[in-house]
Amino acid sequence: MSDDEVGGEGQAYGVPQSLKRLRCCMRCYLIKTEEQFRNEGCENCPTMRQFGDINGWTTTNFEGFVAIMRPGESWVSRWNKKARVSPGVYSIKVYGEMSQDVMDELQGDAGYDGE
Q1: CA–CA gap between residue 24 and residue 60 (Å, rounded)
Q2: 106 Cβ neighbours under 8 A, 6+ residues apart
């Protein structure tokens, strides 16, 4: 991993490697490429990877984005309610809903806030 992919505290950034085939996690709004989600999952939602098919919990239908590199220190992250996420690129607005199978599984997840 190169220095530009690692945060100041040794944390990996969830930055898209390309502008093609972008997807957004419907739970935390992290934006990465389809390949990155398949290979790495979501840094903020590790339980999502258990669902296998990324189409159930990511979408290509999102609007706007903001780069958050220091979530706890940035007013932008606090304004967008992203103060406790991993550094990365996040969508401003996401359209669509998670598949019913994923929603049913998440109901028992204490970290799921229903968004």
Answers
A1: 6
A2: 27, 47, 98, 112
The values of phi and psi at residue 17, to 5°, are -85, -10
- Residues 9-19 have pLDDT tens digits of 444 567 888 88
Q: Provide the token pair at 102.
A: 């994923």
Half-sphere exposure of 24 (CA within 13 A, CB side): 21
Listed in sequence order, the residues at least 6 apart from 55 whose beta carbon sits closer than 8 Å to its beta carbon are 99
25 and 44 in contact (C-beta within 8 Å)? yes
Q: What is the pTM of this model?
A: 0.76
3-state SS class at 106:
helix
Instruction: Give the other-Cβ count within 10 Å of 51's Cβ.
Output: 17
Amino acid of residue 23: R
- The encoded tokens of residue 83 equal 């103060």
